[in-house]
Amino acid sequence: MKINKDKILRWFSYFVYSLIVLLVFLNGIYTTNDSASYIGMSSMRSPVYPLLIKLFYFIGGNNYQIWLLCFQIIFGTFGLYVFCSFVHRFFKLEYWLTFLLSLSLLAPYFLFGQIANIVMTEAIAYPLFLIAIRFLIESVIDRRMRPFIIYLFCCIPLIMTRGQFLFLYFISIIVITYLFIYLKEKRKKLMRVVIIFISCIILTNLAERSYNYILFQRFNKVSLIGVQLSAAGFYLSEKEDMKLFNDSTELRFFKSVLQTTHIENNWNREYDKKTPTNSGFGYYQMVYNKIIWGAVYPEAKKIVPQPEAHNDLRSWMYINKLTTAVSFKLIQQHWKEFVSIYITNVLYGLGYKHYSFLFFMLLVVFLVVFLRFQNKYALLYTLLLIISLANVLLIALLEPTGEYRYLIYNDALYFALIIVALNNWISLLKNKKSQTSEIQ
How much is the pTM? Predict the structure, then answer.
């Protein structure tokens, strides 16, 4: 009796998938320090995930977390299925490679991050990202507009789940330019795509503002850029920087934060430079959250005027305005050091020195191969590397890139690149072997 290896592997994969889903479910669901701001629908959070929590609270009451866990598992499974089935079909992957890809993409669920078991946005953002990238790949490789439009609509809930994905607007501009170059006969139709792209940006912005208006009676969108930049600003600051501030409120805020970061604690560059046992950039990563949540936010909150203090949205808007003004002055004063931190942060996000060099080398090689030979695999690899680079470039500007939850999306792209490249290499070897047999 002939054994069907593919059928056995398929049934084995179903067993493994079921086992992983069961283990994830049995692990239950728990909260972190950041979870409270989503559960409480804080104005500092993007609206999709808090609304999702509210929906399951309406359905399940005090048992809403069980409903949320089930949804995160189901939606995560759906996102992985959409992506893996597309890659399997589009690039004609062998089934064992598709299985390997799916296991790699499942790693954040049961090995590294357990993202489905935490009340955090990653559980929704990760599968949404995979779905969006699936349509982006199809659009770029086939040079078709319809998948790109679907991708644009996927970006709306994705960006409204995590602001981190604003970098996809930059990717969208690159892809639109690419389509304009290679679809010369369809440029009039492409103008509709441009209009849809702009409309999606406007719609996303209006949706977030409307959400804030309903909850906080203000048609505004909260930005935390100033709060996030304040970590680098105060890390680099010195006592002599007091002369930069003519505004009494800014000066008062600077002095109070400096008291915490420089006098009461050692959350600054000067201490890092004087202490050879520290790990350089690693020390900045270590004190980043301490500066923001242990000094900047508490001191800024004390200064918020009473009318704004009673409204969460207005309070965060005031804090961001204050921290933006102070941070920009500090960064402008220490711009060389800030650029150094930013570049190091980018390299750190790409694997630091050796791996970042390999990253840029591969990016250049794949781009040159595509431009010269119009090879679809080189185009895919170039696209995936550009997406991962754009993600790191944005994160590094505002946050340390050492946190795994920011880079699980890049890991998914790398897994896809490796699996598709391996499948292509195996196909070439098989074709070469077949041609050799025919000659003999």
Answer: 0.93
